[in-house]
Amino acid sequence: MVDIRLKNSKTRRVEVLDPIVPGKVSMYVCGPTVYDRAHIGNARSAVVFDQLFRLLRHVYGKDNVTFVRNFTDVDDKINARAAEEGREIADLTAETALWYLDDTRALGVLDPTHMPRATGYIAEMVAFIEDLIAKGFAYARDGHVLFRVRSFEDYGKLSGRSVDDMIAGARVEVAPYKEDPMDFVLWKPSADDIPGWESPWGRGRPGWHIECSAMAHAILGEQFDIHGGGADLMFPHHENEVAQSCAAGHKFANIWMHNEMLQVEGKKMSKSLGNFFTVRDLLDSGVPGEVIRMVFLGTHYGKPMDWTEKKRAEAEKTLRKWYGLAEAGDAVPKAVVAALADDLNTHQALAEMHKLDGAELGASLSVMGLWSGAVPEWAQEDGVDLSAFVECLSDAREKAMQSKDFSVVDALKTALTAAGIEVRMSKEGVELLPGPDFDPSKLEGL
Ligand SMILES: [Zn+2]
What we know:
This protein has 15 helices and 15 strands. Helix 4 (about 120-135) crosses helix 6 (about 210-220). The model has no long low-confidence stretch (mean pLDDT about 95). The longest helix has 21 residues, at about 40-60. Strands 4-3-9-10 form a four-stranded parallel sheet, sandwiched between helices. A four-stranded antiparallel sheet has the order 5-6-7-8. The protein has three domains: about 15-260, Rossmann fold (3-Layer(aba) Sandwich); about 265-380, no CATH class; about 385-445, no CATH class. It is of the alpha/beta class. Zinc ion binds near residues 30, 237 and 241.
């Protein structure tokens, strides 16, 4: 079996993945808070961990990889949005979760094995919190339950910060019910008009962090192989997950992976700069999902990624070419697997694919989530059958070989090129590859 090496954020080293249960891999990735369309920064994380999921399935077999990605469907941002729009919370979160699945599936993202919703695990969270209180790591006060950060010695280890630095640098909230400003909320009281559940501490709702610890434990157990998420989640979210789970006595995740953030044309994406867009905006503007995915995979997940129009155009051109050369296959060449197994070096894997064609290219496109065995509609020749032109050009070439008069061949080539078609002529024959500028109307009358 191929060794998969991954950069572990926890040890800051590249390590060989050594599954807890030999031959089986378990992974948890923090999913979206569902109240709005996913922006392309959110989508990068979905694609990165989908690519890892696809590699793991390729190496370990489809049935031997368990991937959990949650939906956060209880959150104050959700409550605020529902109030703003005057609609039911459950209705808002159900619709947004479906949007997320639609949009990510359009990017070739497979559905994870389990997609738990936080509201489905409230009892598990309450039990988890009760256990933390019993062990002295948490305390209840005024309807709140807080995690006692200073009681957990390793707090800050994952993100490499000391508690005192964190207090100095972070916007920690001082509140009368906190023993220490660093303590974070596990449970908080709910007013009558917002979602709440009965608990030993009164009617309330969970804080954000506890849901991942409780759901990972419920589905994957006390220890699992990989935990992923965006680099922006490392502190405080992941630091708090580690604190809760390890304080409860679980070993939790062996390898932590974080994908870096996304920019647009060299600038941080923000609503005020007008360069903020959602996956749906891109898809609706005519950018195919495969092209978006290809642009994402062009940059290593551990580096900041820049979305540019130039990259979009290049990705589209390459994919059109590849779809013209690929055939169905499932034997992925070693060099492509080796690149992916080297800390998910998708950039290198794509570089290797430039050397391929036929079934090897088809199998590689599949493992990269860029092909489902058929050429996507957008990359087909817009319904124009080019075979007549291939025949015409072949005939003209044959005649020209004898007459030594290539003027007809040249005229045909010029016209085809002007219509955005790449003309390839070799001993094997004539090949016509429509490029991104292909304009079928220019073929009329030829
Ligand atoms: Zn999480």
